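Table S2 (text version). Query chain:
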Amino acid sequence: METLVLNGLVNGLIVGGVYALIGLSLTLLYGVLRIVNFAHGEFVIGGSFLAYVLFNSLGIAPLLALPIAAVSFFAAGWLAYYLLIPRLARSDDPENMSFLMMYGLSIALSAVMLLLFEADSRSIDYAFSPISMKVGPIYVSTARLVAFGVTIVISLALSWFLYRTLPGKALRATIMNREAIQIVGVDVEQLSAFAFALATGLAGVTGVLIALVFPAFNAFSGAEYSIIGFIVVVLGGLGNPLGALLAGIIYGLAEQLATVFLPQALAQIVGFAILVGTILVRPTGILGWRAQR
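Corresponding structure-token output:
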């Protein structure tokens, strides 16, 4: 039993790190633009399919696919922002229109991936050497450990960017008070475009990591990761990047440990139970108070 628990803890940290990146990119988008992106999971799975194509067609390893995914999805996000978001500002009800637009985009992206890759689940047949490494009394897939290391590096780099650079501080200030930052002369339009592109780029990178951590993915997997992202965002506190990181780890640990003690069918509802409990006890989320200060 101790070995099973330790295995759940290790895998929970690894999976939770991936979930944290999904929530982090989603909370940046919501915090700056106040847009609930239902298509975020499709962007994530798009990154997985990009890694799949690069490896199977060009022989590019998943780690080398990370910067390609970051740049290409960042550019796609920047383009998507100027094609879609400014139109919302001219509508009579921007909030409801954003729901409809992003939901429609989600369906469209799923349809495109279905057309290109069909409904079959895909995986990247790539193995590190050695295939697994010993962590205490258990063996963990090297691919998962590498993905966890990349997750830590990305999280630290993003934290440095948000808290140590001027553009990052401007993003956090926009999350806290969008109107106030406009008064001091910050171009909120450009900042919003950058936030959308950054969130999309992070989604693409996360998709590459998902291809390493999870055994398979398909054109319909996006909805699952969108739901996970929303859970992480609500748990951590709307618009709070640090809260998203913490909530992702908590959710991943709860999900993996639940599989040790509970049947598979019941284990899947543990994360939702934590979400409901958090909303009842602390509606603002784990670190929601910081977003209000």
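Notes on Table S2: Residues 2-292 form a domain with the ABC transporter involved in vitamin B12 uptake, BtuC fold (CATH 1.10.3470). The beta strands are 132-135, 138-141.
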